[in-house]
Specification:
21 helices; alpha+beta; 16-stranded mixed beta sheet; about 40% helix; Endonuclease, Chain A; two-stranded parallel sheet; single chain
């Protein structure tokens, strides 16, 4: 819900602004009800489709939003004030104009929306916005924020890391992607290798129920109640001006481009193929309760998602394949890995190299543990900042190659024994284990698990990743990054990483 900030200049403006046409698509010859009724659903099973590419994940969200009839519920950790964030906000406002009830929960920590923009969106009778755990920014003064840091350190670090998007209670998307350019391959300098999963029927009810639990939680506050002072300066005329600015930006013909018009024209032709590609399987949605745990254990405490994933790993018979942007073993993690390897289970982890990572604090924790992790027998592969696979995964790579963009892992995925698949928001670190609420889909499907594991194997191939312990991977990063990492490793932050 972030808009009306000055957009960053881009060298290929057209290809960024062309996204406007995605979010302004007129209703297609299909609609969600027709699609849902015509699905050859399997009793008790869930239809699933893994979204590997950023543009594919963006188109899926756009089509769902444009064809919603009754409701859209959204949870995100980050919603940025960039092109993707602004156009997505406009698409939700336009859905509200059609009579769709739109509800959004955004975590407070990474929220950088101008107050007037939040007020203008929430002013629509069909739009409701709530802010999760608002102790950092929204309606919080600098003095109050400092007071919160001193008096309730655990609470300020407890964040909602959930990412869910549910339309009409029938279709959902969850996974690693936040709502910002870099998660959909539209940043010029830095993009993420991420993964989402489209879910139809089955566990969508559970995803919706989780949203409702957060919506009703005491930790989720209506944005109007947090911005009472700011509301004094945003009258009805200003609200209309802000909303009009959104519409004008998204409907400016100068922002359209032929590749997007073609994508929109072809979306009805592509949809049946996507629906036919759904894999029907036993699936379950795992999620933490608001607040993660009772908080009595300070920065520890675990959670429902943590325990669910530990149980899956413990069940492994032959191999465990993990992809996580950050690799900082929580308490018990090293012991668990050592035990798996001792009984013949092959454990491989795909993560970021120093050259690729976007989070030096988290990498410092990995740096301290790396030798101990390798001593357990786990094989770790660190993604290169410019892997060859980047060209395959980013459809518009030829348009941004001149900027030599960095590519980094953001996918949070696990495959056990080639048949059990997890796609969600859980990072392999203490923060996800103990502090942040997390969600994800666990699927029992040899087909889906095999396909995703094959993708991870591609990521860890020698042209894309270095194997830790075989090469001095840190030495391949820029000196400035190695120098900054040195200071991060001196800080006692492990439980917060």
């Amino acid at each position: 819900m972030i808009l009306l900030k000055t957009l960053r200049p881009f060298s290929v403006t057209v290809l960024l602004l062309l996204l406007a046409s995605i979010f302004c698509a007129s209703a297609s010859s299909y609609d969600l009800l027709t699609v849902y009724e015509n699905l050859e659903r399997q009793p008790g099973e869930t239809g699933l489709y893994v979204l590997e590419k950023g543009e594919e994940a963006l188109l899926a969200r756009a089509w769902l939003a444009d064809n919603a009839r009754q409701s859209i519920t959204v949870q995100y950790f980050i919603w940025s004030a960039d092109n993707i964030g602004i156009l997505a906000a406009e698409s939700l406002l336009r859905a509200a104009e059609r009579g769709v009830h739109v509800r959004v929960i955004v975590d407070d920590l990474m929220l950088d929306a101008p107050p007037g923009s939040l007020i203008a969106l929430a002013d629509h009778p069909n739009v409701e916005i709530r802010i999760y755990n608002p102790v950092h920014k929204t309606g919080v003064s600098k003095v109050k924020r400092l007071f919160n840091v001193v008096t309730d350190f655990r609470n300020i670090n407890q964040r909602m890391h959930d990412k869910t998007f549910v339309v009409d209670g029938q279709f959902a998307i969850t996974g690693g992607r936040n709502m910002a350019d870099e998660y959909f391959d539209y940043d010029q300098k830095y993009n993420f290798r991420d993964r989402d999963i489209l879910v139809v029927g089955g566990v969508v009810d559970d995803i919706q129920d989780n949203f409702e639990s957060f919506w009703k939680s005491d930790l989720a506050h209506p944005v109007e109640s947090l911005l009472t002072f700011q509301k004094l300066f945003v009258n009805k005329k200003k609200v209309k001006e802000i909303q009009l600015e959104l519409y004008e930006y998204a409907n400016d013909p100068a922002n359209f481009a032929s590749p997007v018009r073609k994508a929109l024209a072809d979306i009805d032709d592509a949809l049946p193929s996507l629906i036919e590609s759904l894999v029907w399987a036993d699936a379950r949605f795992i999620c933490d309760v608001p607040g993660k745990n009772d908080g009595n254990s300070g920065l520890s405490g675990g959670g429902v998602a943590t325990q669910s994933l530990v149980e899956i790993v413990q069940s492994a018979k032959t191999r465990v394949t993990i992809q996580s942007p950050y690799l900082v073993m929580p308490d018990g993690g090293l012991r668990l890995c050592k035990g798996l390897v001792a009984r013949g289970v092959e454990v491989r982890i795909s993560t970021n190299s120093l050259g690729a990572t976007d989070n030096l604090a988290a990498f410092s924790g990995y740096r301290k543990q790396r030798e101990a992790i390798l001593e357990t027998g786990v094989k770790v592969f660190e993604l290169k900042p410019h892997p060859k696979i980047q060209k395959e995964l980013i459809d518009r790579y030829p348009e941004i190659v001149e900027n030599s963009p960095v590519f980094a892992i953001h996918a949070k995925t696990m495959v056990v024994d080639g048949k059990t698949l997890y796609v969600g928001t859980f990072n392999l670190d203490p923060r996800s284990a103990n502090l942040n609420t997390e969600v994800g889909i666990i699927v029992e499907s040899q087909k889906l698990a095999g396909e995703v594991e094959s993708r991870i194997f591609d990521d860890i191939a020698s042209e894309n990743s270095w194997q830790a312990g075989i090469e001095n991977t840190d030495a391949k990063a820029k000196f400035s990054k190695r120098f900054r990492l040195m200071f991060w490793t001196l800080l006692p932050l492990d439980s917060l990483l």
